[in-house]
Amino acid sequence: MQSILHLAVILSFIYMVNGVVLKSTMNNNYPQIAVLGCNSSKANLYYDTDKHVWVEHLISSCVNDEQSILEFCKQAYPSFRIGNIVRSDTVLRFENWCELISPIDKNGDNIHRCKQGSGTEEFVQPYRCLYLTSKREEITLPTVDCTMNSIIGTDQCLRAEQWRQLASVECENKNMNLNTSVMTLDWCGLSAFRGIEFVCCPTKKSNDNDYETSLDEQDDND
To answer: Rounded to an integer, what distance in angstroms lies between the CA atom of residue 8 and that of residue 58?
Structure first.
């Protein structure tokens, strides 16, 4: 019994000290998960909203569709009344996310965490785990030239990617590009919602000075 407890302590220490590291900027503190699917042998991740770190969920099962993602959200956050999910349009970069092995070799030393040669860098779009009293996701204007927009009150029940397509078209009609978007918390099905809020920003134009500079450089080379 003592040996099992000793092993559990060592395991906990290894995964706390040498766990996955987020290398991207994250400006929220929402319950969310990051998964790689059933073809990956890497552990699923969930965001610890108290410690503000990403944690490997070592006993979670295969996650390969939206229903299993919802179930993992419920498993990762048992104190929340998780009822829906929505995929973020932000890509996060993780390091030290690798295939895990037993931390102790046959000699009882040389503690390791990752299989040799297993890739440790991954880019993932996380899923936010939604519950009945979730806070509305914050959305801001990146520049003064951008505009805040919304499509609500249409009685349409659409998936998140469909709402983003409509938002992108509306931005294009204004000669702008879709910058960021968030679903309203009025959901009507699994990853389905009744509206979207989004930001349109001006389309970037090439600078004529850059063109002139490139011509000058070409003349100099000639």
So the answer is: 12
